[in-house]
Amino acid sequence: MPILSLPVALLALALAAGAIALAGPRMVRVADRLADVTGLGEAFVGAVLVGAATSLPDILATALPAVRGFAELAVGNALGGVLGQTAFLAIADLTYRRANLEHAAASLPNLVQGTLLITLLGGVMVLFTAPEGAVLGVHPGSLVLLVVYGYGLRLVTETSQAPMWRAVETEETTLDVPDEPVSDDGAPARLWGAFAGLAAVLAGAGITLAVAGESLVSQAGWNEAAVGVFLTGVGSSLAELVVSIAAIRAGALTLAVGNVIGGNTFDTLLVVVADIAYRDGSVYAAVGSSAPLVTALALVATAVITLGLLRRERHGVGNIGVESVVVLLLYVGAIALVV
Which domains occur in the chain, in start order? Predict the structure, then answer.
């Protein structure tokens, strides 16, 4: 991986972010159709398939710097993505005019995903403050996080198929139902192919972001944690913003919220990816105070959004829910504290 000059690194950062922004809306249309033809549902497709695919830039922008010893850049990218994507959900709330997005898109799978995300972020906080203890360079707690994530996905599937709780339907509630009858037997194969191609575009953008981020730290001397949290982290997470806005415009509100929450759940595991890729011991012991701070803010922001899904306020401050306002204020506070 080359080290770029400052102008080239900034250009690469912009191009990668642009590629992610362009691929996102197309992925929403493909994913929405996949949810219908496979019967998996918008919440599951948004949280697992789209959430994982839009996390590909984050995976590569986290793993590659970690391999090369940029611990704070790698961890900052992962956690900055979680905090940034939660703020993106608040921005997406502004684009939905009928009601507060948390009211319209309330669903049990999204609530389970939100609770799982809070649990994982709490686990990461514990590992940041726990005594250092790496086995073959990996903290045992990272493996626990993987197990918790797997169990959480099982709960999401079970609650989608046999829910024991349902949100009260109102005139602003958008239900997850197929858009049209499925009759073309060849449609699933074509949709999976299109989805894979778009995922490859996002992966290429993630590699470019990793190169640009390392260059800004090495060549320009920019703060490693700030670059990870607010540049590569936000850049690699732009897919979640454009996917959520495109999903809202298409009427797939459950997918929009599930994409962000599920993507954040997946991105939290990128700290585990960083721990595995970082070869100089446990990555939790190699970062400064910014990482626990961003983790705590992301946890609070997630709890606020989950509370919003439970509270289901119809109309908040103008066209945006009170929870979204709080999340945006938390993000501004993160910028002030980290930078």
Answer: 6-175+186-338 (1.20.1420.30)
